[in-house]
Amino acid sequence: MKKIFNIWTVVILAFFLRIVHLDQSFWLDEAAQVIESSRALNQQFNLAADFHPPLYHLLLHFWLQPATSEVWVRMLSVFLGIGSIFFIYLLGRLIIKEKQALSAAFFLAISPYHIWYSQEARPYIAFAFFSLASTYFLIKKKWVLCTVFLVLSLYTHYFTLFLLIGDGFYIFLFEKKYLKTGLASIISALVLFSFWLPEFVKQLSLGTNGLFPGWTNVVSVSSLRTAGLTFAKFIFGRGTLENKYLYAVLIFPVFFLLILSLVKIWRIITGKILIFLFFMPFVICEFISLFIPIVAPQRLIFLLPLFYLILAEGIDNFSKKVQFAAILIVIITSIGGIYQYYTDPNVQREQWRDAVSFTEKDSDPQNVALFVFPQPFAPYMWYGKGTIDAWGIAPKFIVTDSDLKNLSLRLQNKKRAYLYQYLTGLTDPQGKTKNFLSAEGFIQSYTNNFSGVGFIYTYDKK
Questions:
Q1: What is the rounded CA–CA span in Å between residue 417 and residue 431?
Q2: Residue 38 shares a structural domain with residue 115
Q3: Residues 88, 45 share a domain
Q4: Looking at the 3D structure of the chain, how many domains does it have?
Q5: Residue 137 sits in which domain range?
Q6: Range with the poorest average pLDDT among 224-233, 252-261, 408-417
């Protein structure tokens, strides 16, 4: 009874931490996800523009049937996040001990990074859940269930391929007598995933061609930065500090505890297993990123539970006094990350709901919202009520003189233009659109700033 109470106390804590600010505005990727998942069922497999497999799109499609509010949409991720906390506890009990398993579950419950993605209407936390479940059944040698969750993970996120390589090496190094059965499980999962390969090739072709210069740097991180940034995000969450030295001082104690934990547990077999399960996929991802810029910390979130299992096992091998101090350090650092997320709008999601409301507050047909993009951004399309025109003015992503010439004709009957700054550093780095509006007789009268969205410039015709 005590064991059940303890883990369920952690689960209840995790739930309440994950419903704070659940009603935030959808940001760019979430709005695009919700729009895509709102399409008809037969369109959920048309994902050429979104470099993900279809499972989360399908799950969210059915989840959206009762309601489409921000809270309801994100509850799917909340439940998946809580499920991953329960599975880290099960995996911890299987590999190490009850005490460390509960510690790891608690650390994950208060992890600011895990909280963020447990509120994100995107596939990352589903990937973390399915991959963690597959690892649990791999260690438990429940091969059918392992295969099932590997398939679910493959159809959720392509980084499962790195997990599969790690699984294969794990079986070869630690479970040789199950080599044939284990490899059969992995191969079966790949065969069942092969039905999606034609679509994957289409996505890969579009992704490698690139949308426009600079976009790769937005969606991925250079290999030289990935490792440090990943550990920083794992420790403190999405937030940061303006003073980078203070930020480094803040996250260093937990990072130092990780190093000490690795040293402590390296000599025991369970420690070797945890280290291998974490670092094998991590190293593979780092190596691939030297050639293909695909790695970003959120895509490595499936390793976060193992990160905390290593910490929990390492801390348990410290002396009693050091154990208390180490646990306190992890808790204080996590609380710091949670506090910043809860209180700092710059760490929270883009305030598109407020931005769109501001733009459409005056439904004058002579007003127009302008986006230096092929079309209005997904959050605008989701929140906009169509009370004014909204135009994308750069059909090939980079604004050209020809695009602005066409815009000149369309602006003939407009008296006010709201120009969104969002992503113009990539699509209009020379500020051509602002200069064009001035040349067309529009005077910049107001500038409003919405966190994450950036500036909205209000131009009025002379």
A1: 16
A2: yes
A3: yes
A4: 2
A5: 2-343
A6: 224-233
Q: Are 404 and 398 in contact (CB under 8 A)?
A: no
Same domain, 321 and 382: no
In angstroms, rounded to a whole number, what is the distance separating the alpha carbons of residues 128 and 138? Answer: 15
Res 1: pLDDT:
41
Say what the pLDDT of residue 294 is.
Answer: 77
In one-letter notation, the amino acid at residue 327 is: I
Please report, as a single letter, which amino acid is at residue 307: F
* Same-domain pairing of 130 and 225: yes
First vs last Cα of the chain: how many Å apart? 75
How much of the chain exceeds pLDDT 70, in percent?
A: 94
Q: Are residues 267 and 384 in the same domain?
A: no
Q: What are the pLDDT digits (tens) for 26-69?
A: 999 999 999 999 999 988 888 777 788 999 999 999 999 999 99
